């Protein structure tokens, strides 16, 4: 049901975590995938993994906070594969600091990467998708409700959900579907580094009805489904993938 072949996909932040899992799942579903990441070596590792799985992928270095870099990365994808059908905008940065302890520079950086970066990606993806295509923005459950000590992150993720909904309405006449996936805590390397040696993971699992954190592959499965023809009548949603925490 989640077959996306023969199409061209693009995934940002695909050098690790949810982005890597999404790029690999898109490739397994039959798409050629541009693997975009600010870390050149991480993008190359993901591309190598896809190749070993028998898929087709291209590593592209990008800084989503820089418009020239985003435009060049999208153009390189189109040059390599002849077009673009699907995009998963996953790249972002985390921030954990109370509002009164945060500098303006830190706030602006988080919003610039997460929200403005998603905007820039969509700006250059959408014109290529006219006639039919899909975009999935990876937001967060922090785009649906508050996360303590994360004001910039939550503000940016709420903004991504808003961008998603407006784009879904504006570009529906062009046959473009735009959705968001809002993961709860997910067992990525970044999350585990942030949790450190504390009991954070155990506490997060304890307040999740399914009793565990998501895996990157489970979030990726939702994103790929939204890209696929199986979701052909789904647009403008913010899908929680959170083990029941929003129930």
TrEMBL record:
Q: Which GO terms describe its molecular function?
A: oxidoreductase activity
Q: Which Pfam families match?
A: adh_short_C2
Against InterPro entries, the record matches this protein to: NAD(P)-bd_dom_sf, Sc_DH/Rdtase_CS, SDR_fam
UniProt key word Acetylation: no
The enzyme class is oxidoreductase
Which keywords fit this entry according to its UniProt record?
Oxidoreductase
Note whether Oxidoreductase occurs among the keywords: yes
Q: Where is the signal peptide?
A: none
Cite the CDD domains for this sequence. SDR_c
Q: What is its EC number?
A: 1.1.1.-
Family listed: Belongs to the short-chain dehydrogenases/reductases (SDR) family.
Q: Kindly provide the name given to this protein in its UniProt entry.
A: SDR family NAD(P)-dependent oxidoreductase
Q: Which organism is it from?
A: Actinoallomurus acaciae
